[in-house]
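FAQ
Q: What does a multi-component entry look like?
A: The components come first, one per line:
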Amino acid sequence: MVRREHQGLTATEAVAGAPGRRARLALPGLAGAGRPLLGIALGLLLVLPMAFFLAVAVSPRLFAQGPQWFTLSNFAQALSGQTLQGLVDSLVVGVVAAAVAVAAGSALAWLVQRTTLPGRRIVPILVWAVLLSPSYLSALGWERLVEPDGVLAQMGLHALALRHLVMGPIGVTLVLATRGVPFAFLTVSAALLGLGSEFEEAARVHGASRWGALRVALPIVAPALWSAAAIVFAESISDFGVASTLAADAHFPVATYTLFTAIDSTPIEFGIAAAVAWLLVAAGGLAIVAQQRALRGRSYAVLGGRTRLAGRHRLGPGGMALGLAFVVGLFLAALGIPVLGAVSASLLKDFGAAYGLHAWTLSNYRRVFTDDGLLGPILLSARMAAITATLAVVIGLALARLLVRRSASTLTRVLDLALIGAVAVPTVVLAAGYIFAYNLPILARLGVSLYGTLTLLGMGYLAGVLPTLSRMLIGPVAQVQASMVDAARVHGAGGARTWQSVVVPLLARPILWAWLFAWVGTLLELPISQLLYPPGEEPLSVAITKHLANYDFGGGTAMMVVSVLGALAVVGAALGLFRLLVPAGWRRAGS
Amino acid sequence: MGAGPMAGRRARGRWAGLTALAAALALMGAACSQANASGSSGKVPLVVYSAQGYDSAMVTAFQKATGIPTKLVDDSTGPLLARVQAEKDNPQWDILWVDGATAFAALDQEGLLHRGFEPSVAFTSVGQQLIPSDKSYIPTGVTTMAAVVYDSSKVSSPPTSWQDLLSPQWSKGIGMNDPSVSGPTYGFVAGMMQQFGGAAQGEAFFEKLKANGLQVFQTNGDTLHALTTGQIKLALVQSSAGIGAGLQASSIKSVFLPTQTLMPGCIGISTGAKGAVLKEAERFAEFVLSGAGQKVQQGGDPQGDSLYWPVLSSVAPLPALPDLSALQTQIIDPTLWGPREAGINQWFDANIRG
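Then the predicted structure of the entire assembly, as tokens:
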């Protein structure tokens, strides 16, 4: 039954700004006082630090970062030489990665939602596994696989052509595209779930071929495709994990890396880094503008309560083989190969020098569990991640609710732009902005001593995950059918009761996934941890990086693998508990 | 929204929501404040920013010996200097302990370093030469840039001069770090320029190296990884990294071609450290250079940063290190080469890294 109810949702609701009938999901108590509170929270978490950092680009003197009160020279430098090349590369990579991710994610969504493909039920779990794994692990895994004397070479396969392909622009783009597939899959799946079969059927009745029917259906899910493309683009241009590993090792300059080197090497040039950040924010904004222009003036409100359950397309043997090959290939690339590469690298001795298989050793793993310095960082990061994830879900839900409001007000549009701009900004910018904003001498004089505390580190983490998380929650929040909320209210339920009996059950699963996404992302977060961690409180990612920097390659990689496996174990346990403890109806909703 | 009779319930709901949000924020504050409050025990806590592999052992030993609560921010040099720079208006560190005098000379020029302090210890002649005239930082040991590291099971006759590296024997077989990512590598590039007679001559040498197939990696670890995975035959890395690699894999050897550029590890005290904290910071520097401190420095990271040459005449280097006086070495003037760092790194990235 739940499934059928689900079909009544509007296809377009996965996208902010598109018209349609939506539930008014007032968070209990946030109706009146909530919005200012939310505004203050966003201001302190995101707007203030970002504005401070961006201000350095035009007024270095303001933060003692140079002699000028006003200058455009940082932009001139950002738009020349290697930095310009990095920006251009990033934009091209972002566009191609977005296109590939949306194509692959849509195909995957169609196979899972609309065909009888065997094994389709485990695909969403694999998709989440991709979403939860850090991008540098993917990049490192690929490198360890194809490098000379890497895993393939150890197996006797010297794939020179593959190495050149992976260690260059194509490899960078494809790794980012595979990381974008989950965003596209989740968004397009939501749209397909709501899209009844009547449009395709009508097309077929009127003599259209299967291809023709697709041409009818595609424009209807266009908002979802555009939304997915915008987020993958923004995620790709701000990615640091792939930029600092695969792209840097291949000497392929991308914007996040040139920004990082401006901050990370002497002389430290915050001004140039800030100018690059401005341009990345602008690029993210352009993506949203492009999305809105493409959809402007058209109504996508095609579906209502009478939407018919869509049937599943029965795949023939050829189609099934093709579909399976696609799914297996996709997840091998997105998940399997990086994991294999990283695990095998962690088994190597010394500097990854394996003179034959006999040199593989488990001693690195033994060290991880006996190293005193590791348990503290693990516990600290796990605790910080749990607090961050909980707050991120609460605030993210409130934001998502604002973004799916029936009338797209100026506020909504500004919020949408600000959030995608924040997604497009590398987190190291946010971290530096936090120092500028919260280490001001005037704050100390006012008695506010936030800087150098775990509270500020937690705020930084929260700001890091919130933009992506709130956009992820837009789809599920939009899908909660208005009539169900209305029905609850008509039957006398108050705001809190409605949330408890209607909204929470419907959103339980996406909330859990969003929480896990924020938890895992924070657990292994690096740039914010590096710049904001309080003296004496070393987070996990800093401890791991330190081992890698001290030439303990096997040990560092082993720590990383143990952390990721530990994180996946927690994810598994959380999902298992969800299955055991939560009513069956809750679980089926949104599946 | 619902009708009038439910107003009371709605109001309660609103309060419930606000309370929930406030409670969540309070939870975060409470969970975090626990750690923020720790360490407040009479004496003012000392904050050390350090990239040295033995720093956490040193901080523990110092705290034990003096009772001064000491907190460590332990990270690579790049992020630490970025933090110091961003905190410029309101420094949060008392001690900075990283490799490379150029970074300290730059901080000194910006007025961020406390001047005029020199621990009363017997420095070696090398140690004395490394102390700046305004005494704004203190050397705690030296390494050299760059050791030529090779695998003796694959390479039987290593090079004996820098010019040797240009021979066809090493075509596509040499790797080094990127100076704009690895701080000590800038010292190497500047040192080569100094010994060849100027920036232009140094550039010409690196251009020839590039023509001979030089490969550029990010840091010491990456370059050594390339060596042990057979991508290169010779790795030009920091001496401690090369000797440490030899301790981990016995076939890995290092040679020190003339002339080697000395890379001092230094301690700088922040101008933000005043009164009692300044005294504590000076005690920290004195402790590092004491007999007990040097034991910790040599034992804290035995296969990495502990492989330094001490700058005190009373302390011998670890047995794995060759005699420093037997090597031909030079010191580069940080006030001369420091300001040229951005330009030279840019030149390197545009013309050599490529």
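Q: Is there any commentary attached?
A: Sometimes. For this entry: The longest strand of chain B covers residues 260-269.
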